[in-house]
Amino acid sequence: MKKLILFWLIVAGLLHAEVINAPASKTLLAKQIPIVDIRTPGEWKETGLVKGSIPIMFFDEKGGYNVDRFMLQLKAKVDTTKPFALICRTGSRTSMLAPFLAQTYGYTVYNLQGGIMTAYRAGLPIVPYQ
């Protein structure tokens, strides 16, 4: 019986999982959804960050990654029971990571299409990486 209840809890959680593909925009910022910037520190220094975003590197400079490390940092900085957004340089990396997080963990994730490049064109506030 306990296994059946656990199974249904997991299934119910996954039913709420969703990836929302949307460009970085002032409308999205107004919703105050946390934005997690998954780029590398070098990229953050080069272009800055969307104001208020949370830098947590997923892929390193060589394309490697550590899911456990990322998840620890994500859960420490973001309430993953609520929707959050992912941003990278152009949206390529987030288009891979967002579905993984939604399918594996049941999260609702905004994939910010076009990444920081679209954020610049949309006139979003960009701040230097410290």
UniProtKB/TrEMBL annotation:
Residues in the signal sequence: 1-17
UniProt keyword annotations, A-Z: Signal
Presence of keyword Aminoacyl-tRNA synthetase: no
Domain Rhodanese: 29-128
Keyword Signal: yes
Pfam family, one: Rhodanese
Organism superkingdom: Bacteria
Protein name: Rhodanese-like domain-containing protein
Organism (species): Sulfurimonas diazotrophicus
